[in-house]
Amino acid sequence: MAKKENPIRRTTGKGGNYRKTKAGAGMTKKGVAAHRRANPGSKLKTAVTGKVKKGSAAAKRRKSYCARSAGQMKKFPKAAKDPNSRLRQARKRWKC
Q: Over the stretch 59-69, which tens digit does the pLDDT of each residue have?
């Protein structure tokens, strides 16, 4: 019995769930919706990219993300040095 080959799955571009690195990395709205369908009860949300009021829920999410990703910057110094890395681009999109 021959094993059926899977077609190449793309995560970026048309029908993808993730933004390209130059577009700021992170998940797209469509990607978040797909994840939430696959994982009932998930509270995943897209990035906080706009202006937020101080102390609002969105501001707290941003602060939390920035703190977590700062830890990633320490853990992966190679990505932290590269301005085009997904980590740096995502932090820029979140306005960290």
A: 999 999 999 99
For tokens 């590269």, the residue is: 82
Amino acid letter, 54: K
Q: Write out the residue range of the structural domain in which residue 43 sits.
A: 21-94
Residue 42 placed within a domain? yes
Number of domains in the chain: 1
Q: Which residue is associated with the tokens 């707290």?
A: 60
Q: Examine residue 4 and state whether it is found in any structural domain, yes or no.
A: no
CA–CA dist 17, 44 (Å, integer): 13
Amino acid (one-letter) located at 89: Q
Chain segment 67-79, per-residue pLDDT in tens: 999 999 999 999 9
Residue 14 has pLDDT above 90, yes or no: no
